Every structure is written in C-alpha cells, then in structure tokens.
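Forwarding the complex inputs:
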Amino acid sequence: MANGGDQFGLAERPDSDCMDSPKETKQEKHSFTLNSPTSPQTASNQQGMEGIKVFLHDRELWTKFDEVGTEMIITKAGRRMFPSYKVKVTGLNPKTKYILLMDIVPGDDHRYKFADNKWSITGKAEPAMPGRLYVHPDSPATGAHWSRQLVSFQKLKLTNNHLDPFGHIILNSMHKYQPRLHIVKADENNGFGSKNTAFCTHVFSETAFIAVTSYQNHKITQLKIENNPFAKGFRGSDDNELHRMAKLQGKDYPVVPRSTVRQRVCSAGSPFSGESRGLRASPEDVGSPYSCENGLNRSSPRELLNAPPAHYTLPHPHLQPAQQPQVYHCTKRKAEENCSSGNHQHPYKKPFPGGSPSEGQSYYHPSSYPAPPPGLSSNPALGLTDSPYSSDMGQRQACMFASSEPRMDELNCASWSYTCPLSTAMTPMEPYPPYTPHPTYSSSPQGSRLSAIAHQSPSPLGEQLTHDPYQNQSSGPPPQSSQNIHSRQLSSPLREYPRYTPNLSPPLYHTLETHTHIRCGVPEWSAAS
DNA sequence: TCTATCACTTG
DNA sequence: CCAAGTGATAG
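Prediction (whole assembly, three chains):
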C-alpha cells in the first residue's frame, strides 16, 4: 500500500548503472529499499558514461506489480503508465549535457491472452508498430540538472492508435513490452555532432508489462487502485465502497462491489510473473554490464520480455532488454557486439525467430507533421485541428517528425541530426501514415530539442521519438534543436508504407529515421540549420 | 476486444 | 471552479 508511488519521489533503488560504479547512490531515501540493486558493474568505456548509475524509483512498487504481472492500459487518447517510470541518475558529469529518453520495446514476439487467471501465449505477435522514443522534456540538460532530482517519465503516454498524432508510444494490446531508458551524451564536444556519441541503456526488468485495453487480472486493478492517487475514488474498503457502488449504480445493489469480488476471486498469480516472482528481486540483478549478454541474468519471467527481438523493436541493437538492469553501454562498437549476443531463449521468450515480425517493410511514413512552431501547437495545416485531438496536440505540442526521406544512409549510426526548427527538414508526406511496423520516426516536441534518436535495430525498424513538450523543463536548455541520432540503417529506408491509407488526415510526421542501431557512434549533424 | 462515458480524485 | 487522470461500466 503504500507506496504511493511516484509521489514520493524518493525512494530509489539502484538499478543499473552504466558502467562502473562510482558511487552508489546518492541517497536513497528511505523507503523501500531495495535490496539489491544491481550492482554495477560495468564496464565500459565511453567517455564519461562509465560512472553513470540509474536507480528505479519506487522499485518496490514496480516489483509488486511485476510479481502479479504488470498490465498497462493503452487507449486511443493515450494513457499514462502507473507506476510511473521515474529514475534517479548519478554519475553524470555535471557540466556535460545529456539527453534522457525512453522507448518501449517488445518483450517477445507473442500475443498473450488472460484466461483462467493467468497469462498464456496465444499466438504470434503482431508486427510491432513504429517504435517511438520519448525524449524527456528537459533534454538536453546538464548532468547537474538530471542529478538534482528524480527524472520522471510520468507524462509518457501509451496508445493503441497506430496513427497516433501526439507522439505517444504506440503499443499492441495483449503484447508484452519492456521499457528502456537511454542516456545519451549530448555535449557539444562529443555529442551531437560528433562521432563519438556515447550513450548507455538501462533496462529494469521489473518494469516490463503487458499492454491491455482493460485490465485482465484483478489483482492488478487492485494494486492500481491502492497505489494510484487518481484512482483513490475506487478504494474503499468496506462499507463505503458498497454504498458508493450502490449509489452509483443504482441498479444492482451490489452486494459486493465488483471490484471486491473480483479481487477476492482471483488470487491467482499471474503467469507472468509467476515465475519470476521470486526472482526478480534478487540481487542478482546485477546484470552484466553490457547488456548484450544479457541473457543472462536471471530467468525471471520477465524474460519474456526480454527477448529482444533484435530486429523488432529494439532500437538499439544491442540493447536487449534484459532483465536486469542492464546497462548497455554502448559505445561504439560495443553495441554491436552486444547485440548479437544475447539471446537466450527461455521458454517464454523466444527470440524472435526468424521472422520477426514483420518486418516488412512497411514503414510509416512519415508525413510531416508540421511542426508546430514552438509555441504553437497545432497545426492547422493538418487539419487536425478540429479533431479532438487537436487540442491535445496543441497542448502538448508534441510533434513527430518523420523523415521522409530517409537518409538513413547518411545518417549512420549514430548520427544526430538537428532538426529543430522543424520546418526545415520535414517533408510532409502523405496524408497519413499508415501504420507501419516499424518506422522510425521521431517526434519532437515543439520544436525544440531533439528529435530523434535513433535506433535501430537491425532490421528495419526504427523508432520514433517523442518528446514531450509538456513537461516542464526546468532547466531546460534552450531548445534548440533537436537532434537525432541515427544509427545506421541496415535496412531500408523507410518509406514505404503498405497499406492503409488513409483517410485520416492526421498530421504529418516527419521522420527522421533511423533505423538500425544506434550504436554509438557517430552522429552527425544533419540538417540543421 | 475495444470504445465511449461516468463518477471520482488530484492538483 | 477547472484540467487531467483513474478504474468501472455498458455498449
């Protein structure tokens, strides 16, 4: 019960770190503590990335959900995650600028169903949608800024709308996913433009979840109600609840509130976690420093998640989600190495066998979303304005850019492109981007900041970024530009889209694309101007 | 399964 | 009051 999760803000648990361990933590506050964090280990090199450590906030709460089998609601309009993804980052160079971003990759290539109080595989996963990246609104910001307080990704929203114009992360219902945090050095010296872009990726296996349009396991519902302040209205114990329900419903007098009933009824553990449960907490977590290997680590159930398809969604090639907090660091080469490695298969997870999902190539195409100028948000141009969404857009100002042309080629691995001014580079594309399996595109928020990062997987996938405009930026740096990282692309460019065509007129996205992996590498500035 | 709507909470 | 986010619920 207790934990209210985010709100507290404090507790942290160390989870992963990038490379070495410098210090451990700064503070942990009290609260739960976790036990074992992972140890840090690491390795690596990259300039300055080595001492970076990341602690998942409220890990204990995440673990509670994970043990049951975390479910996250996805809606057309976008739904926040709960628990919220918040981390404490230490080991950053105070003066260096970094971009923090998240992405959520498929945990495996299966489709799940919840029956008989447990999750089971029903079939193969759908193609994976465009992987989008959510760039923390404060990005880029100095290490001092990021270290000052918890870095919250609570504004990140999940949607099941493949044509989502807001830059929310698009997921498929009844599929398993693994959130990942990436820290990219954006300093001028090295950063964006240079070739050495260093970055590291952290994966907390306890944050893996199955996306759903409505909760399947009542235990999860109960945990959400108990811990999410916004759901407080559903807490009730006892009488109140009944009364309340009765009043509300009028209809059936509930003898017992459904929720209550359900809860009791189901007690089964989730399959999901079933297995893992115990594991997860283990200290073992420490995973290896590099991720790639990750396979290793525990076998927690999460592994399911882990399975990184390489192609699929993982943006970074190497990053496979591992269970542990792994850190992948990538630096240049390592990334690749890593990537390849890991894969184990667990019963659950399977690596994506060959097929990966679709790979087909369809990419979303990006149309251009006119980026709203920084202040503006919506673009009338799109026509969206009217739409219900439009308002949102405005508010959020999130924009996505897709590059129509991908020049992925050009961009290679880690190139960053600057896009900021949105306009510049974008191209509008067609009416609407159909959904594509893996496109890559990024969105940026208002125009500022980054647009994308890249990623990629070996396959054609790319990801998109979304920046959230919304948030705050406290110290945000001048928004200047956005940068994108790209990785090299392996495959083809994006652009094609398969079907759909749509009618929608949504906005356009620009994509920058990126595909491939980001390795670390070299970014280039591209376009800027 | 998914969508839209509802009453409720937080801030 | 409002905006926004929640789970519950009916369709």
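The first strand of chain A starts at residue 12 and ends at 17.
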